[in-house]
Design brief:
The chain has helices spanning about 35-45, 55-75, 125-135; strands at about 10-15, 20-30, 80-90, 95-100, 135-140, 145-150. The chain has about 150 residues and is α+β, with helices and mostly antiparallel strands. It has a single domain (about 10-150), classed as Heat Shock Protein 90 (2-Layer Sandwich), CATH 3.30.565. It has a six-stranded antiparallel β-sheet, with helices on one face. Strand 3 and strand 4 form a beta hairpin. The longest helix has 22 residues, at about 55-75. The radius of gyration is 15 Å and the shape is globular. The model has no long low-confidence stretch (mean pLDDT about 90).
Length: about 150
Amino acid sequence: MTSLRLCIRRAPVQEPDGPATAVTLRLPSDVDCIEEAVALLTYHCTTGARTSERLRFRLQVVLAEAIANAILRGNCEDAGKCVEVRAILVPTEVRLHVTDEGPGFDPATVPDPDTPMRLQEAHGRGLFLIRHLSDAVTFTPRGNSICITLRRQ
């Protein structure tokens, strides 16, 4: 496995609810990058802020699932496409935006993996996990960007 160098950018931003920090990462559509990206983003989203183990766990899972979905489903592992992750850090919450370069999708058409006929399927649980571990989840109209909110509680 080759070692990749992922570059995080941090910048102060002004949000409607006050000053915040933006953390951005652009990564290639390569599943081998997911673990490193999640580790870097988790570190930068939690350093210097009140962070419970519960929040750290939720952050790691939703990041891994959202990035994996963007690479596998959105970009179809196309090496010419990238995934951009942007985290807005405010004292009360972490807001994540994961965007791929794919055509998008309608999240309402994703079947519930919790139904008896879908329990044995090996895929289809990413959005389910994201929705259940997050405080809020929205999608852009095009459907190629997910916005996830995690409260710092």
